[in-house]
Amino acid sequence: MSFKFSKKELIYPLLVFMTLMVVVVALWNKTLKTQESLLQNEIQTSGHLRSQEFYHSIDNNIKALENLKQRIEMTNGGYFQYWEEDAQLILDQNPSFKFVEWIDSSMVIRKITPLKGNEAVVGLDISKLYRADEWREHSQNSKTNITSWVSLTQGGNAFLVDVPVYFEGRLQGTITAGMDFTNPFNQLATDLDAYAVEIKDETGTTFYAYNDPKASEFDNRYLYSTSFMVDTLDLQRWSFTLMPKQVDMLADRKETMFIAFVFGMLLSVLTSSLMYFYRASRTENKRYKESILKLRKLNKDLKKEQLKAHKANRAKTEFVSNMSHEIRTPLNAILGFIEVLKASNIQKSLKEYLSLMDISSKKLLLLVDDILEIDKIESGKSTFKNEPFSPSDEIANIISIYKPSIEQKGLYLHLDAPESNICGIGDMGKFGQIITNLLRNSLKFTENGGIHIAYRERVSENHLLVDLVIKDTGIGIPKNKMKTIFDRFTQVDSGITKKHEGSGLGLYITYHLVKLMGGHIEVESSRNNGTEFQVKLQFPLVQCKQEEQKVIDLTSDKDVDLESASVLIVDDNKINVIVLKKALETMGIKAQWVSDGEQAVEEVQKNMYDLVFMDIHMPVMDGLEATKVIRETNKDLVIMGFSADVTRETIEAALEVGMNDYFTKPISMDKLRQHLSTYLVNSKVS
């Protein structure tokens, strides 16, 4: 596309160009004359602001010591018992502090934090040092003392700051600190790249310099100098000087101004050119504006939909969590009563019914767990532990659990795995869940033949690479199902005539767990020819931990006299209380019961208990708050969290407030007995 220029069209752009150039030249000349004045004002302004920041930094550090003095004096010395903790806190929070020490009224250094590296001054009598008179004078006037920049007995240099402490009508000593302000001053000076800073004490000694200051090379007009009082009793003042980093700082600005002049010329040319094409662009601008308005409307609508989706996802998460808790609570009662009834003398036929009820209830519990796991995955809340474990040992453990069920079904189970003593860092539970889901899937869809598991591992670049193959002789997967096998609620035999039970969640969870662990999973199958799953994972290599020898044998209940145990149940659900009390009675334990955390606190204060089962969600006072209150006065009582809330946030919160362990409802009789034995033995031994 070509444009034809005309004189009439060029007159207005040329006039604009000439006008702009006159303005640019005039501004450039004026700027050159004013740069020197601006630089002087800039130095004075920056120097004033920065000097205040440096002074406040010094003052704040000294106040940290004076605050400790006030706490000790207000408590008549009672707060002195926290000396080490407070001194260490001051060191942690204030990088200018090298040490904090206590000099008693006899002028002897009695305590110092940290002790390491400062052992030489413990017991030192400062009455024999050069600063003894200064220390006495400030102590008599109850004024904070700051020495000059001095050499320390234990090595190095610092300012010594003495804060006198008075209580019971007399001087008790001073809180003394060695201070070096280099670190906090460096933080304040991080953005002063164009300036240099020099700070001297009252003797003229430079104790801080930034960007190699050279005050002698500058005219006084380019220096900012001030001083601030640090010791009112001695009229002790420190001087602060700020100056440009480079002597030719103004020359650099002139170069920058020349670049700006050239830029102004280019801007004039561009502005003139834009004026020429202005009319031609008006139509396009109008169209662009209309498009922008439409795009804004679309973005606004998109944000509304995103907000709706976020609210819906949050509501779904809350619903799943609440429903899980509400389902687990009655399930706890059902499974608990089943356990109690199975242990009682009832008819054989009824025991068979109870076994069927037990199986059905546990299937429902597994379904609830799967739904919770899916919610964590889809909401991005899945968390993975990092702990050393042996993948080969974990596979062997899982196979030992499922082998009886597989053989009872008339199937074989072959494991092809080399002996290994190699460990990696990862989430053993999530790894085991992957293996368990694949093994249960093969078991469910295999009626004849069996299951073959091949495990291989190798080390590469400090990582443990794991290859796992699980192959069965089951019904296989049709080709039209292969693409959806890892989708939610998908099964090979779907529909109202399906033969195999299941929710269709296991492989979906497995697929996402493998992906979240940075692995890869594939499946090969055909109808009536079995299915083969291939999993590849890698873990950072680590040395396997040696198992510690147990001092106490917890393998038998004979080690513990359960009947003599004193147990308290804290739960507002009466049905769950009945179930737990019945379960404990089968072990010979008679437990007491209260319905909320406030009653639990009162009961623990009045009576001695070996163990407390603490629910989480209760009226008046919840289990977390009750545990926190109990731990303020009782550190040894065994408190077990016992709730239907299985969220990781709640479990972590329970352990943080002081619970020894956390059990999720429902819990089996065997697991209950095992943990009771463990904790009651430890309680009696301690």
TrEMBL record:
InterPro entries recorded for this chain?
A: CHASE_dom, CheY-like_superfamily, HATPase_C_sf, HATPase_dom, His_kinase_dom, HisK_dim/P_dom, HisK_dim/P_sf, Sig_transdc_His_kin-like_C
Using the record's annotation, list all stretches that form the Histidine kinase domain: 322-541
For this protein, what is the EC number? 2.7.13.3
Alphabetized SMART domains for the sequence: CHASE, HATPase_c, HisKA, REC
Q: Name one Pfam family in it.
A: HisKA
Listed A to Z, the keywords are: Coiled coil, Kinase, Membrane, Phosphoprotein, Transferase, Transmembrane, Transmembrane helix
> 4-aspartylphosphate modification sites?
615
What highest taxon heads this organism's lineage?
Answer: Bacteria
Q: Where are the transmembrane segments?
A: 12-29, 257-278
- Which chemical reaction does it catalyze? ATP + protein L-histidine = ADP + protein N-phospho-L-histidine
Q: Which residues form the Response regulatory domain?
A: 566-680
Q: Which residues form a coiled coil?
A: 285-315
Q: What's the protein name?
A: histidine kinase
Instruction: Provide the species name.
Output: Sediminicola luteus
